[in-house]
Amino acid sequence: MGHEHHHHEVEGKNLFFTILLNAGISLAELIGGVVAGSISLISDAIHNFSDVLSLIISYVANKLSKREATEKYTFGFKRSEIIAAFLNSATLIVLAVFILFEAIQRFLNPVEISGTLVIWLALGSIAVNGLSVLFIKKDAEGNMNMKSAYLHLFGDMMTSIAVLTGGILMKYYRIYWIDPLFSILIALYLIYLSWDIFKTSLKIMMQFTPDNINIENLAKNLSEIKGIKNIHHIHIWQINEHDIMFEAHIDLENDVKISEFEEILEKVKEYLHSKHHIHHVTLQPEFAMNDNKRLIMN
């Protein structure tokens, strides 16, 4: 029995336009931040530049993931987007820690900042990031790689709003300590945005069992299928966020023909597909095999 599984196809051209937009605003904010003396503007520029790098990674990964499998690369490049999501989220966390450190230093030693320049550049960043978010919003649905890029951009838009608020307070009220304070809040917000994707992508790369699958319950339910005596030596892992792989040894109650085993196999596949969305199943049939019957084996 074959099972079709589809997910949203990502449009690479939207990602390409987003890269160009963010490269421009990153350069403008960096120069403006240095001229204005604003660490929040510089941190926003660095964050924007990290977006450019993350978007490039996402773009390349998206292209690679569409390549067909070959004799040398039997899974194709499906995991490239998970690696991209991991790199993007890890980069954002490291960057946030750097911003946090610099902001604390500036908070202890505040300096006068040009609020006008901060305001205009923050407005430009909000416009660019808002447009970028709209470009890839649809692609971010059901694709972890694109979601990590989307969160980068959405986080950028929110940080730019904070920078704009800080610029207004500095220009009209001369509250210069607000600049490093907002930078600290921006850094904490970036860590909050990235942590879940970082954890999930790391689990997939480490081939952990998906969180929503309980192996003991799964094995118990499979053992209730007629003809199965025991199921053991189970491995469940993900190639990417969509494709879950399953392999196991299966003890049969009787020494059956291959055609009879195939009937059992179809029942196993049907259960795994309907209950756990597992599409790739590999079973090793056994009868009177004197081996270790542990559920999990190295």
Structure description:
By secondary structure, this protein is mainly alpha-helical. The chain folds into two domains: 12-205, Alpha-lytic protease prodomain-like, CATH 1.20.1510; 215-286, 2-Layer Sandwich (Alpha-Beta Plaits), CATH 3.30.70.1350. It has helices spanning 12-36, 39-65, 80-108, 115-136, 144-173, 178-205, 215-223, 258-276; strands spanning 228-238, 244-252, 280-286. It starts with 11 loop residues before the first helix and ends in a 12-residue tail after the last strand.
Q: Could you give the topology of this structure?
A:
Blueprint: H1 12-36, H2 39-65, H3 80-108, H4 115-136, H5 144-173, H6 178-205, H7 215-223, E1 228-238, E2 244-252, H8 258-276, E3 280-286
Parallel strand pairs: 2-3
Antiparallel strand pairs: 1-2
H and E string: HHHHHHHEEHE
- The number of helices is 8
Rounded to the nearest angstrom, the distance between the terminal CA atoms is 30 Å
How many β-strand stretches?
Answer: 3
CATH class division of the largest domain: Mainly Alpha
CATH topology of the largest domain, anyone? Answer: Alpha-lytic protease prodomain-like
Question: CATH H level of the largest domain: which superfamily?
Answer: Cation efflux protein transmembrane domain
Oligomer classification: single chain
Q: Kindly provide the radius of gyration, computed on alpha-carbon positions and rounded to a whole number of angstroms.
A: 25 Å
Q: Helix/strand-derived class?
A: mainly alpha
Instruction: Give the proportion of residues in helices.
Output: 55-70%
Major sheet size, sense and barrel closure: 3 strands, mixed
Which band does the percent of strand residues land in? 5-15%
- Known CATH architecture of the largest domain: Up-down Bundle
Instruction: Output mean pLDDT.
Output: 83
Number of separate structural domains: 2
Uncertain residue segments: 1-8
The strand order across the widest sheet is 1-2-3
> What is the 3D form?
elongated
